[in-house]
Structure formats: structure tokens, C-alpha cells
Amino acid sequence: MIEEDREIMQFSDLSDEALVRSCQEHLPYDTRSFEALVARHKQKVYGLAYRMMRTQQDAEDVAQETWVKVYHALPNFRGEASFKTWVHRIAVNTALDALQKQKRRVKEACATAEVDGEGRDLFALTDHSAGGNPVQNALSQELILCIEDAVRQLPDKEMSTIMLREFQGLSYQEIAEALRVSLGTVKMRLHRARKSLRQLIAQLCDALLPPVWRQKKQEHEL
What we know:
Largest sheet: none
């Protein structure tokens, strides 16, 4: 057991670049380097997937598919971007593909099903009515969900850019590498996304905004 723990620590101490080289040399016969990469980045990948997909099951599916794609693509990874940004690129594209499939299913369902006035689409807010939380806590959670819902209504390119910046904490350079665009394009998309997001939040979440936010919004409009 002590020897196994020592081996695990040795892998965890390696850089991403060293682990990638080890994967390229030893996969599929020795998966320890790949497991170390997954352990290091899985929370970020899942967090991004959850922000984009909204449900735990969909996020888990996207995260799992992302790592399957990473595993199969590793032999061709040449390090033109860092491993972290490369994984984020794959995760974003996987989530966007999943969202497009969801949207197609919603359109097909709407075209064939009768509207009963009680149904919710795939992007509806989570129902908190069954919870026993204080009203203020419920409103705060509902506001968070409303803002996330507003983010997901942005165009795909703007949504993925602001997700990587605001929720994943990537730098402008890392976003540019992950999305394979220029720094200028990143800045332009973020500017458009933030402007559109302010409008969406005002439309969708106005009643949930704290009084201070609402006051600032009114002052800005004057």
C-alpha cells in the first residue's frame, strides 16, 4: 500500500506536459498518467459542463464524453496550447453539441405535442417551491439560477466565452487558445456578451434583484 501511495504521489507531482508525454508513450497499457490528468482537471470540466447544461445528469454525460474524446485525441496532441485550454476547448464543444441536440428535441416535441400550459422546457428554472428554506435564501438561489439561465440564452459563441471567463476563471489568452480565436475576438465577444447579459437580466430577473442592484440599474438608465 505504501508503494502504491508513493507511485500515486509521483504521478500527481508531474506537470501536465509530463503526464501527456507519459500518456502518449504508455497508453493504453498503463493508464496512471491519464488518471492523474483526469483527477487534476475533472472538477473544472464538470463545473463548466454543469453551468452550460444545468442538470447533474447532462453535466455528467458531457464530462464523461469529454474525457473519452480527450483519451482518444491524446496521441495527436502536439502541445500547441496548454493541456488545460485544450481540455476546455473539447468540453465547450461537447456541451454546445449537446445543447444543440436538446434544442432540436424541444423543437420536435413542440411541433407534435399539445401545449397544456403546465409544461416546462429543458431550460426552465428549477422549482424551489418544495423546499423549506427561508424566503431570502430561496430568492438568492432563484436569482443565481435566473442569471445562469440568462447566460445560456446568449448566442453560443458569446455564451462559451463568458462561461470560460466568469465561471472558469480563464485568462483572455487561455480563452483565445481554447476557442482558437484572437485576443481581439475574445474581448469583442466578452463586451457583447456582457452588454446582452445586462439586458437579459433586466428582462428576466428584475423582480429578483436586490434593492441596491435595482437602484444602480435605475441610476444607470437616467
